[in-house]
Amino acid sequence: MTSLSQNRGAGVTPRRRGARVGIGWIGVVPFGVYALLFLGIPAVLAVASGFFTEKGAFTLANFDTFADPTTQKDIIGSIGLSAVTAIAGAIAGALICYALLSMRSDGLVRTVVDAASSVFAQFGGVMLAFAFIATMGNTGLLGVVINGIFGDNAYTSPLYTVPGLVPVYLFFQIPLMVLTFMPAMEALKPAWGEAVATLGGTRRTYWWRVGIPVLAPAFLGCAILLFANSFSSFATAAALISQGGLISLDIYRASTSETVIGHANEAGSLALAMVLVMIVLMTAYGTLQRRAAKWGNR
Amino acid sequence: MNKRYLAGAALVVATAFALTACAGTAGSGSTGSTKTLTLAEAQAATSASDFGGMAGLVAAATKEGHLNVITLPPSWANYGQIIAGFEKKYPGIKINSENPDGSSADEVAAAKSQKGQSTAPDVFDIGTAVMDQNLDLLAPYKVASWGDIPADFKDADGTWYYDYTGLMSVGYDSKKFPNGVKKLDDLLGSDFKNAVAIKGDPTQANEALSAVTMAALQSGGSVDNIQPGIDFFQKLKQAGNFLGTLPKQATVASGETPVVIQWSFNNVGWGPAAGSAGNPNWKTVVLPGTGFGSYYNQAINKDAPNPAAARLWEEYLYTPAVQNLYLAAGAYPAQLAAMKKNGTVDKSVLAKVGDAPSDFVQLDADQAAKASTLLTAKWAAAIG
């Protein structure tokens, strides 16, 4: 929907805009400096460390870790977990947004869901892990109920495996989707629906021809945000899983190991792999969005 | 809008003042009644006499006003009480306890990345494998009771010195397992389903590697060959008894990790000794046979921002009072033999904890390297 409004504004003389950019960049400087200091430089340093030995000599030996079946399995595990929780979280979140759309934007339900989403989207780390141990752990609520019905030891908690992280991650993924996708849903104009109806279209025509094409770029953008959110998650997984299985846990193991000495810089090469996965994903998204914009112009 | 900028500017100024104030207390030292050392001189001091004796050391440390310790969990070897005791004994010195749950490698990383800053760690409590790679970070120092530390427990120049060791032990919830744990193979039984946890991944955490080594000693292996230990955990996993989560004091209290193989001082510290935060039914067993221990080392950061406080901390740790605090947690202190001889050991504590077995073993550097190579190759597949 941003592209539509931009198209409409395309008649405005570009020169004036250019003049405004002249001082406008000053407003971006604090964010630019912040991003450089806390994201850009650390990322470059982390990735660069993958190309050096601990004594500072250039080496490619840190990339040997990708030949290790454990590393390969953990990369696949991370991508799989992130994809599943991003897709499931995006669909569930979008459905919630759809349901909320029919309610008054200043009504009680909307206010409560908005507020709750802001809180739960930030709920993570050890606290989240313990909340799930209390509900889904071996001695948690679910285990007590199932053992009560089927006898002792009938329940084995799935929490301490990589697939067991799916429900835990959805706990913050769905609210994040609601938060980020709701503005896009709200931008759908009722007039478009009326126009479709006037031209003889059904509700299905409206969603198929108008709603979904307009929302698709925002939906995919949000889904990628969810993917990155889960891909980079560490504290929750580390509190639940002690024996690895994700690339973020491998980075922790390599960089802090007390027992396998001299492999700390493998963390840098693993970080590079994570960055590459995100670059591939963002490139795919950019291509898709350009395609979508082209369709929009037709 | 303007107001907000003003508030922001005020905050920046206030922070800057606070920072310079900290730096001032950390580095300066131009007045005083006893021997006054510069920062560089204090960082090179190798005994209390360099400060003009204990009184001079206390005065210099008090002037610094801070001590940065790192990776000392309050429930680990009684460090909660030990830290509180220091602050009580030297009220002018505030202890900043950074990253309590971190690893030995985190200590080294913090010392390197914060070098020259007032937040850098002053002292280390560090595992031998990591320390051996980073001896250039350490400043030699000999505490007053240096002679009470056995010769093979310390570096001759005072670069490092053993502080305490635990023994690998099995902690269990006696309410859930009234029959207890008599031998390691008991844990393979069907009543221990989803029950047995260790302290992390042995290719990362020394305490987990020690659990595997202890399992090897109990299963016909040795410190030179820990393969039987890996085999034991593979059997444990196949039986459905291995619990792949990280045990914490909270999971022991809630019953989620009903059996934990870890250092005796941690099992003791998470049991009734912890009061309401512990599990009142938690029992600690050191299995019969050859015990397995691993001394941790004390050492001072050569770039310590509070060099006098760092040295005072070491003096404090090697007093009988603190050595007895280690002992009370089930951590056998380095001066135990001397304390038994000169009568400063707390006999009631010793009777309760039990004397350290004379025949326990630890990994030397070569054995540790061999063990970690084997684990890197075999562990993930064994429990995967």
What would a concise description of this structure say?
The complex is a heterodimer of chains A (298) and B (384). Chain A is mainly α and 298 residues long. Chain A has 12 helices and no strands.
State the main characteristics:
heterodimer, A: 298 residues, mainly alpha, MetI-like fold, B: 384 residues, alpha+beta, D-Maltodextrin-Binding Protein, domain 2, two-stranded parallel sheet, 10 strands, 14% strand, globular
Explain this structure.
The complex is a heterodimer of chains A (298) and B (384). In chain A, helix 3 packs across helix 7 and helix 3 runs antiparallel to helix 9. Chain A is 74% helix and 0% strand. With 384 residues, chain B is of the alpha+beta class. Chain B has 2 domains: 185 residues, D-Maltodextrin-Binding Protein, domain 2; 154 residues, Periplasmic binding protein-like II (D-Maltodextrin-Binding Protein, domain 2, 3-Layer(aba) Sandwich), CATH 3.40.190. Chain B has 15 helices and 10 strands. Chain B is globular and about 65 Å long. Chains A and B meet through helix 3, helix 5, helix 10 and helix 11 of A and helix 5, helix 7, helix 9 and helix 15 of B.
The number of distinct helices of chain B, counting runs of at least 4 residues, comes to: 15
Average pLDDT of chain B, rounded to a whole number, is 89
Could you name the CATH topology of the largest domain in chain B? D-Maltodextrin-Binding Protein, domain 2
**How far is it from the N-terminal to the C-terminal residue of chain A, by CA?**
15 Å
SSE topology sketch:
The complex is a heterodimer of chains A (298) and B (384).
Chain A (H helix, E strand, L loop, with lengths): L1 H7 L5 H36 L19 H33 L6 H14 L3 H12 L4 H10 L14 H22 L3 H9 L4 H29 L3 H6 L6 H10 L9 H32 L1
Helix pairs in contact in A: 2-12, 3-7, 3-9, 4-7, 7-9, 8-9, 9-12, 11-12
Chain B lengths: L1 H26 L11 H6 L9 H11 L1 E5 L8 H11 L4 E5 L5 H10 L9 E4 L1 H5 L5 E2 L21 E13 L22 E3 L7 H13 L8 H12 L10 H6 L4 E5 H6 L12 E4 L7 E9 L5 H11 L2 H9 L3 E2 L2 H7 L4 H7 L11 H19 L1
Parallel strand pairs in B: 1-2, 6-7
Antiparallel strand pairs in B: 3-9, 4-9, 5-7, 5-8, 5-9, 5-10
Helix pairs in contact in B: 3-11, 7-8, 8-15
